[in-house]
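Risk register update: the risk of archive-format incompatibility is retired. Evidence:
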Amino acid sequence: MWLLIESAAGVTQIKKLLGGATEVAGLMLGAADLAADLGLLGDPRRQVDAARSRILYAAAAEGVPAVVDCPEVQIEAGPQLVKAARDARDWGFTGKSAIHPAQLEAIHGAFRPTEDELQWAEEVLAARDGATRVGETMVDEATKRLARRIARRG
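Archived output:
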């Protein structure tokens, strides 16, 4: 089951909605409906970012494997879409929804790890167990979890 979070009630009750439900495979943010529910005028980014954070924290705490960011309303895959998709990836989203097939290639590309990221992940995963050093970075189990996540996307 996937939950679409697109209202203030959904955002504020996310932990209750998840409530240890093991059948929740993913969450998706519906930002346009959320902005309308809140009566936001102009650029709703700050308020939507607050909802993004709450959803990501709740998903991580409850072990929800997939969290998909809201779509961009501009149909063409321009620089704004690429930046929004890359930002969603950097926030920790596992995907970004699309409203038109023209957006798919840009979204897929933004979520694909770069060669540098893949190389870093390989170096971290090859490091010995326990806290160690790879280049100038301290590597521990948390760092290895991130590296495994990057390697899976590659």
